[in-house]
Design brief:
By secondary structure, the protein is of the alpha/beta class. It has one domain: Aminopeptidase (3-Layer(aba) Sandwich), CATH 3.40.630. It has 6 helices and 11 strands. A 7-stranded mixed beta sheet has the order 1-3-2-6-11-9-10, sandwiched between helices. Strand 4 and strand 5 form a beta hairpin.
């Protein structure tokens, strides 16, 4: 990567904060991955967190990098992914230091993150300026480009969730997150998934789209863009067969919702 002279966090050996796959994709779907990567800037070492801890769900959305890449190919869709671990900064949280929950967490699922304790304003600003802002700017730029070219946009956020959280099992295979703002497309996707008797589907489960979410509200709400946020259970994305199966499921419901077919039957691999 080419690193600006003023960078204080990322160096020449670090990956770019944003990966854009298939930038000339013709599909209406703009795929985004707020937590697709788990890289750590060299300047932060290991954050004081073991490799095993960083590899679990607190570090990233397991399986989403592979799912997003496969969907991008299958649908001919643009895929914008954030390369850094959400333990460095969570790009689906408001960057404001006063925001609750905070984008830079001192503890995640009972695991302390030592490098996130006692950050001064400059250190926090570097994470916002060099990771959070470039990712959000890339999404805004792609939406602007598509609008100028007359290409429709359906914003599709891809996330995954751990099967067990705080000792509680989560029964859903997939959840659809949405809010009252222009959520007709999300509700159509939810209806299509609900029609599949083999799936246990969560409506705003295991999370709700509320003041905590940042990316979809930021880019879709005011602009009136159709959107949907997927949460796929991580154990279902653990191998190539799982990625392939969920690529098929997600691609089918997106395509059916886009053509207005809320009664589309579902078939599995």
């Amino acid at each position: 990567m080419t690193t600006a002279a003023w960078n204080t966090l990322l160096s020449a050996g670090d990956p770019d904060p944003v990966a854009i796959r298939n930038p000339s994709g013709t599909a209406p779907f703009l795929l985004i991955g707020d937590h697709a990567g788990n890289a750590i800037p060299q300047s932060l070492g290991d954050l004081g967190v073991s490799a095993a801890e960083r590899a679990r769900h607190i570090g990233w959305d397991i399986g989403i990098a592979a799912l997003g890449a496969e969907l991008s190919r299958h649908l001919d869709a643009v895929w914008i992914a954030q390369n850094y671990s959400r333990l460095v900064i969570d790009c689906n949280r408001a960057p404001d230091a006063c925001a609750v929950p905070n984008a830079v967490v001192p503890v995640s699922d009972e695991t302390p993150i030592p490098a996130n304790h006692g950050l001064d304003d400059a250190a926090r600003a570097a994470r916002v300026d060099e990771i959070h802002a470039p990712y959000q700017d890339a999404i805004a730029a792609e939406i602007a480009r598509r609008t100028a070219a007359g290409q429709p946009t359906v914003l599709v956020a891809l996330h995954s969730f751990t099967p067990v959280m705080a000792g509680t099992k989560r029964p859903w295979h997939v959840g659809i997150l949405h809010d009252g703002a222009n959520d007709g497309f999300a509700r159509a996707v939810l209806s299509l998934l609900d029609a599949d008797p083999l799936l246990t589907v969560g409506d705003n489960e295991p999370y709700k789209m509320d003041r905590i979410d940042h990316t979809i509200p930021r880019h879709a709400f005011a602009a009136g863009l159709p959107y949907v946020e997927f949460e796929v259970r991580q154990d279902l994305l653990g191998d190539a067969a799982g990625i392939d199966r969920w690529c098929g499921i997600v691609a089918r419901v997106l395509t059916a919702a886009a053509r207005g077919d809320a009664t589309c039957g579902m078939r599995h691999h």
